[in-house]
Amino acid sequence: MVLLSASALAAPLTPTTLTPAQQAQISRIGNSIRCPICRDVLPITESGNEISQQMLAEISAQTRAGQTDTQIYAYFRERYGQRVLLRPSSDWAGTLLWASPVLALLLGGGALAGYLRGGRRAGVSAPNPRPGDSSVQEPGIQHSSAHEPSAEEPEDPYLAEIRANVRAAREQREGT
C-alpha cells in the first residue's frame, strides 16, 4: 500500500505530465502558430514535419516553465518574425492591417450605395408642366383652376374630357 501511494504521488510530479489547463494552452498556441516551412498556411499542430514538432516541444517546455501565452508568442515572434503568427497581434498596427480590407469594403459599398441612390434621385426629373397646369405650382405664380387652352396649345381630347367632367361635377355641387 505504501508503495502504491508513493507511485500515485510521484506521477503528478513528473515533467511529462501536464494539467488539462497546460494541455489546452499548448493546443491553443500551437493552433495559432504557422509552420514556417510549409507551403500551405498550416498551424504547427497540423504539420508533421520536424520543425513543427520542435516548435510544439518548445511550446510545451515553456508552458511547463509557467510562461504565459503572451511570452510564448513573443518568443516565436522574435525568433521567426511576425509572419509565424496565424492570428493578428493585438497592437494598433496589427489590428489596422487586418481590419483595413473590411473597412475598405464597407466604405466602398457605402459609396456605391450613395452613388446609386443619388443617381436615381437625380435621374428622375419632374414632369414638364404645361403652361397654366394647376397640378404643378411654381412659387409666386397664381394659376387659375379652369385652364383653357390657348391657340398655340392644342387641346388633348382626353384632357378635354377630364376637364369637362370636373367642370360638370363642380357645377352639380354648386347647384345642389
**Total number of beta strands:** 0
* Weakly predicted, low-confidence segments: 1-14
CATH topology of the domain at 17-84: Helicase, Ruva Protein, domain 3
Instruction: Let me know the average pLDDT.
Output: 77
Protein name: Cytochrome c-type biogenesis protein
Function: Possible subunit of a heme lyase.
Family: Belongs to the CcmH/CycL/Ccl2/NrfF family.
Keywords: Cytochrome c-type biogenesis, Heme, Iron, Membrane, Metal-binding, Signal, Transmembrane, Transmembrane helix
Any descriptors?
mainly alpha, Helicase, Ruva Protein, domain 3, membrane
Brief account:
With 176 residues, this protein is mainly α. It is 58% helix and 0% strand.
Structure description:
With 176 residues, the chain is mainly alpha-helical. It has a domain at 17-84: Helicase, Ruva Protein, domain 3 (Orthogonal Bundle), CATH 1.10.8.640. Helix content is 58%, strand content 0%. It has helices at 2-13, 20-31, 50-64, 69-80, 92-123, 157-175. The longest helix is centred in the middle third of the chain and has 32 residues, at 92-123.
